[in-house]
Design a protein that fits this description.
alpha/beta; TIM Barrel
């Protein structure tokens, strides 16, 4: 297992973590993701720990807390062998304060997550989304208190815009508060928008990236090709809430993945995951799996070593002209260099 430092922290994490969005299966949305119970979760955790994947990612809203409960049960007796990341911000009840990033909500949300996870601390606590109604310093002071109390080790943010991350970092610096060391965001071969604003910010401010949905909401599993829609959760509507992807663009990327997979003797998803591990700021990729076979297949990405030519082939196939002002910055690398080229 390879390890990387988690952004601007001193914490080393395995390059792959296991996402537990499939645990619980409560509700229409998460029911499409999976319905892993405690017994199966324990076996999946066994497989992860045996492979060195000791980092587990969840969120309080996943199956309304059931994911945290099942993960806590699966890790019982071996909590010290694992790192846990969870999240708060989104609605956990009908009340007006049962959502957001206020001190009132975060203090309660953290205590509830600790109880469900059967632990006394959370290793990485993410703000799941930006709350524009709560002052940034209130959120960060609440998080700083959680860090000072020992209930949280490190903090991160997820799904923020670039300016929202930068405003938060500036606030932390101004008041001497705990700062976001990691960003959890969507990034894949068919979703490279992260590269335009957030990746340069991450390089400049030492904010690492944990990638969620690295297989493009299931579109890069190798089941979808020209004339072949697949039979997985995408075909059953499991990508509801995800970005729409033009068919021709998707097929172009999958064609390139197929070619590189043939050259390396690996699978399409393994190559797609391996490509992400070559990208600047990426310190961890969150992988998911409905069962043990799928999990072991994804773990095989650790054995894939892509050549510069293969990375370039995947880059070219997935390139798209970015929105303004990023396309205008394309030819100003002398003064405004980019971590990677966008096209």
């Amino acid at each position: 297992m390879d390890y990387r430092v988690l952004g601007g922290s001193g914490l080393k994490v395995p390059v792959l973590s296991y996402g537990t969005g499939t645990f619980g299966g409560k509700g229409e949305f998460f029911g499409r993701w999976g319905d892993t119970d405690v017994a199966e979760a324990k076996r999946l955790v066994d497989v992860c720990l045996e492979a060195g994947v000791s980092f587990f990612d969840t969120a309080n809203i996943y199956s309304k807390g059931a994911s945290e409960e099942i993960l806590g049960a699966a890790l019982e007796g071996r909590r010290n062998d694992a790192l846990i990341a969870t999240k708060a911000t989104f609605s956990m009840g009908a009340g007006p304060n049962e959502k957001g990033s206020s001190r009132w909500h975060l203090s309660r949300a953290c205590e509830a997550s600790l109880k469900r996870l059967r632990t006394d601390h959370i290793d990485v606590y993410f703000m799941h989304g930006f709350d524009a109604l709560t002052p940034v310093d209130e959120t960060l002071r609440a998080l700083d208190d959680l860090v000072t109390s020992g209930k949280v080790r490190y903090i991160g943010c997820s799904n923020f815009s670039g300016w929202q991350v930068m405003k938060s970092l500036a606030t932390s610096e101004k008041y001497g508060l705990a700062r976001y060391v990691v960003y959890q965001g969507y990034y894949s071969l068919i979703g490279r928008e992260y590269e335009h604003e957030l990746m340069p910010l991450g390089v400049d401010q030492k904010v690492g990236l944990m990638v969620w949905s690295p297989l493009g909401w299931g579109r890069l599993t190798g089941k979808i090709r020209r004339g072949q829609k697949g039979d997985g959760r995408i075909a059953k509507g499991g990508a509801v809430g995800g970005p729409e992807v033009d068919d021709e663009y998707l097929y172009r990327v999958v064609d390139a993945l197929d070619a590189v997979a043939a050259e390396t003797g690996r699978s399409v998803p393994q190559v797609a995951l391996a490509w992400l591990l070559t990208r600047p700021t990426v310190c961890n990729v969150v992988i998911g799996a409905r069962d043990e076979a799928q999990l072991k297949m994804n773990l095989g990405a650790l054995e894939v070593k892509l050549s510069e030519a293969q990375v370039a082939k995947l880059d070219a196939a997935s390139a798209r002209t970015p929105a303004y002002p990023y396309w205008h910055q394309m030819d100003f690398d002398e003064r405004n260099p980019k971590p990677v080229r966008w096209k």
